Amino acid sequence: MATKHQTGLGRGLGELFVRTDDEPRTERGGTAERSAPIGDGSYLTTLRVDTVTPNPRQPRQVFDEDELRELAASLSEVGVLQPIVVRDRHDGTFELIMGERRLRAARIAGLDTVPAIIRATDDSDLLRDALLENIHRAQLNPLEEAAAYQQLLDDFGCTQEELSGRIKRSRPQISNTIRLLRLPAPVQRRVAAGVLSAGHARALLSLSDPVAQEQLAQRIVAEGLSVRSTEEVVATRGTDDRSPRTPRTTPVSPRAEDLSSELSDHFDTRVRVSIGRTKGRIVIEFAGEDDLERILAVVKNKETTG
């Protein structure tokens, strides 16, 4: 069986592991370099799918076949962003602890290998806490960040409230980031590759039709649409789904457009800047009081450090 190309290869959590040793190491059954321990002896590697055995204590026995095929298609397109978690059996095989759906989908997709966290302790809380402590240090792209958040929620029993407090990001910000995983696989691939920005991705999420999301993503790349122009296209489609329209042609200052994009990334929300002859306007959108407090904290921190 030929190994399929994987673009993500578990970086969503793999980036949280910091190498401290000078020489790379490879574990039995693994096909990639071993990363440094993160406090409890757990580490990231890449394992052959055929070396991973099911967990006999897995409480879930029924898996939706359609959902598995959908996940398999996503893994084929984007790669496995969320590592499975296993225990070394010291006989060349590894017992699955977490990630049964991802493992099954990887087999359906025909992947030869999957990224895996090999856990050295039975205490899941230690691994979860280590990941929480390190997640804010990693340089993750938006899709990898979303995958890391989702894995902490799914595999380690972490709540959004706990995640928010530990990494100093608002719950709405975490929720909006996780929503990126709902995008179609081809769109996710563009976000992971940096072709589409987080602002573009958030705008695409306003469209409910996956086909429309893919079509607009292609147009963004082909025409070099800015985030603001993309939002205008989405708003226009929302009023008339029969055919996409060109964004309104009202002249926009290049400086205002650049500032809108820069401030949107800085505050992680939509920001509109308009510059007139004698005055201008900045409009910052927020999702509830928690998100407003987060934005105000960013502004105050800039004032004290600026």
Which CATH class of the largest domain is shown? Alpha Beta
Strand content: 5-15%
How many DSSP helices? 13
Strand order, main sheet: write it out: 1-5-3-4-2
How many domains? The number is 3
How many E strands? 7
Low-confidence stretches: 1-11, 18-33, 239-250
CATH superfamily of the largest domain: Conserved hypothetical protein from pyrococcus furiosus pfu- 392566-001, ParB domain
Q: What keyword list fits this structure?
A:
single chain, 306 residues, alpha/beta, Conserved hypothetical protein from pyrococcus furiosus pfu- 392566-001, ParB domain, 3 domains, 5-stranded mixed sheet, 13 helices, disordered N terminus
Write up this protein.
The chain is globular. Mean pLDDT is 76; it is low at 1-11, 18-33 and 239-250. It is of the alpha/beta class and 306 residues long. The protein has helices spanning 11-14, 65-78, 100-109, 124-134, 142-155, 160-167, 171-178, 185-192, 198-204, 210-223, 227-239, 254-267, 288-305, and strands spanning 43-48, 52-53, 84-88, 94-98, 113-118, 271-275, 280-284. The strands form two sheets. Strands 1-5-3-4-2 form a five-stranded mixed sheet, covered by helices on one side. It has a two-stranded antiparallel ribbon with strand order 6-7. It has three domains: 11-178, Conserved hypothetical protein from pyrococcus furiosus pfu- 392566-001, ParB domain, CATH 3.90.1530.10; 196-249, no CATH class; 251-306, no CATH class. α2 (65-78) packs across α3, α2 runs parallel beside α8 and α9 runs parallel beside α11. Helices cover 47% and strands 11% of the residues. It has 13 helices and seven strands. The N and C termini lie far apart (57 Å).
